[in-house]
Amino acid sequence: MIRLQTPVLDEKCPAPLSYEDRILLLGSCFTDSIGRRLADYGFSTCVNPFGTLYNPISLLNSLERLAEGRLFTHEDCVRMGSGSGLTCSFSHHTSFARPDEEGFLTHANDALAQAHDFFLSSTYLIITLGTAWCYRHEASGKIVSNCLKRDAREFSRFRLSLEETTASLTRIKELAGNRKIVFTVSPIRHFKDGAHGNQLSKSTLLLSIDRLVENGELPGATAYFPAYEIMMDELRDYRFYSEDMTHPSDQATDYIRERFLDWALPAQEHPRLEASIRAYRHSQHREMH
Hints:
Distance between the termini: 48 Å
Number of helices: 8
Order of helices and strands: EHEHEEHEEEEHEHEHHH
Strand order of the largest sheet: 2-1-5-9-10
Structural class: alpha/beta
Shape: globular
């Protein structure tokens, strides 16, 4: 039979996922996509309690705060730019913004407290890295998760080195302890720096993850799921992209999610998954009368 694809995944996950696991997911918008589907299919999940995160240092900072349960204070509050008048923080996605500091802190700390409790009992982490590029707020010296639409002159932009990225991921693995952890790289291309700049950024992430997976000194099973490679190779046709030509289409996202579940779940879990999928699809049907 003629083969019309070159599959990039032919091994099962060395950190197998189970319905008994409590799964914390952090990272780019691809994390949101996987997390929503896992929740739909009956898994116990906590997804991006700070909103979407993209670079390794922001992910590390968020996991450290999550592990400590350290609440946000008025010192963390930042007024957003572009005349929005909303309050947020440099640790959050703008979806957390609220009209005043009290509203923001209540929302942010409620989410943090719930996620902290979830993390303490979690058994599985899924980390999706988006880019090795970071923004540093010059006045505070902090690497931010989001620039909050403030003046670009307040920030400097730079790409993390391989050593800096590896150090961040190693610390994430240390915080994970005995938990199983899967790293993946977002299939969304970041073209702000052109095709070559995107490849340099993704390559930095891929090489750092490879170093960590190959280093078996830290506790807990560590694995890499090739979401980026599946998008670039198996789905290399532009019909699998949305209109912006950088984000995967809904069909491509569904395909990668299905590949992840097939890869991560051992055979004995598949009957439960299939039953959960049927139950979810049935729940989406609307009664005619």
